[in-house]
Design brief:
By secondary structure, this protein is α/β, with parallel strands linked by helices. Helix content is 37%, strand content 26%. The strands form three sheets. The protein has a six-stranded mixed β-sheet, sandwiched between helices. Strands 1, 2, 3 and 5 form a four-stranded antiparallel β-sheet that branches. It has a four-stranded antiparallel β-sheet with strand order 12-13-11-14, with helices on one face. Strand 1 and strand 2 (22-28) form a beta hairpin. The radius of gyration is 23 Å and the shape is elongated. The termini are far apart.
């Protein structure tokens, strides 16, 4: 086996899914390494769920390819995956234990006390005779996680596992995911709209927009991207960039959408920067000091306003 490939639980190459000629997932090249908690970020309809369904084997790609654990035998390697995509598939008139007993039999799991161990792990051991239809949203999500963990997976794929939970439920799921990652060495691909929470657990990120994976970066890179800066909004970013480079000799800046430029140096010389831009004919619409979090960075990339 290629040593480089074996360091990845998932690699996709131009993975594409089309419906009616429209590319919902468009040539995505994603790299999830062993040990990652990979935060998958995108607006509703961006293609996150469709991508996860393809990786899990619930949808067939239109084009492209993937490897799981460095191998192309996808059906075999998918036995090492646990997934929670959309609503957990459980029986509402059965208890948590009864639901997991069904899963155990379907998967042919013979390990003694397997169900009890998973219930204890996800914090549902003491639910006794309580039916799933009486569960809170947080309990249902934990049961969904329990189902995904029954085959002792090496890789978890979780689509919005904290959606609709209260702060206490979110904290419980977050701590459980960290425990699974750190103690059981399970790699995790997780999508969430609650970016503040995602930033507390993720070690790597991918941002998808209109089916296209526009950026991948590590947590350390995010910290670098979101450091303190002077953010300016101009009429022409190409013109402004030339002034910054050629007149002010500023190199440490980046250009975003919506006519935004972030400047990461000489923040004590803001007035001089403004003056040079205006004298050269740049229309300066707005300027302010900024320091971003994951949500702010995501909104800049996707063209949203805070």
């Amino acid at each position: 086996m290629n040593p480089e490939k074996s360091n990845y639980v998932l690699r996709t190459n131009d993975l594409t899914k089309s419906y009616g000629g429209i590319k919902v997932v468009n040539e995505v090249c994603m790299n999830v390494r062993q040990g990652d908690i990979y935060g998958f970020i995108g607006k509703n309809g961006a293609g996150k769920t469709t991508f996860m369904r393809m990786v899990s084997g619930l949808a067939t790609p239109t084009a492209g390819s993937m490897t799981l654990f460095g191998k192309t035998e996808l059906e075999l390697e998918r036995k090492r995956i646990g997934s929670l995509i959309e609503s957990p598939g459980v029986y509402p008139n059965m208890t948590a234990k009864e639901n997991l007993e069904v899963v155990r039999r379907v998967f042919g799991i013979t390990k003694k006390h397997a169900v009890e161990e998973i219930l204890l792990l996800v914090g549902l051991f003491n639910t006794s005779n309580k039916k799933v239809k009486q569960f809170s949203m947080g309990m249902k999500q934990r049961l969904g996680l329990a189902v995904s963990l029954m085959r002792n997976p090496d890789f978890l794929i979780l689509d919005e596992p904290i959606n609709g939970l209260d702060p206490s439920g979110i904290k419980e799921i977050r701590e459980l995911l960290q425990k699974l990652n750190e103690e059981r060495k399970i790699s995790i691909l997780i999508s969430s709209h609650i970016l503040g929470e995602l930033s507390k657990v993720a070690t790597r990120y991918g941002i998808i927009r209109n089916g296209v994976l526009i950026e991948e970066f590590d947590a350390a890179e995010l910290n670098e991207k979101c450091r303190r800066c002077q953010k300016i909004v101009v009429d022409n970013t190409a013109h402004a960039a030339r002034v910054l480079e050629d007149t002010l000799f500023i190199k440490n800046f980046d250009v975003l959408e919506n006519h935004v430029i972030r400047i990461f140096e000489r923040m004590d010389e803001v007035e001089a920067i403004h003056r040079a831009l205006v004298l050269d004919g740049v229309g300066l619409r707005e300027s302010y000091a900024a320091g971003q979090d994951l949500e702010g960075y995501f909104m800049d990339l996707t063209g949203d306003e805070k």
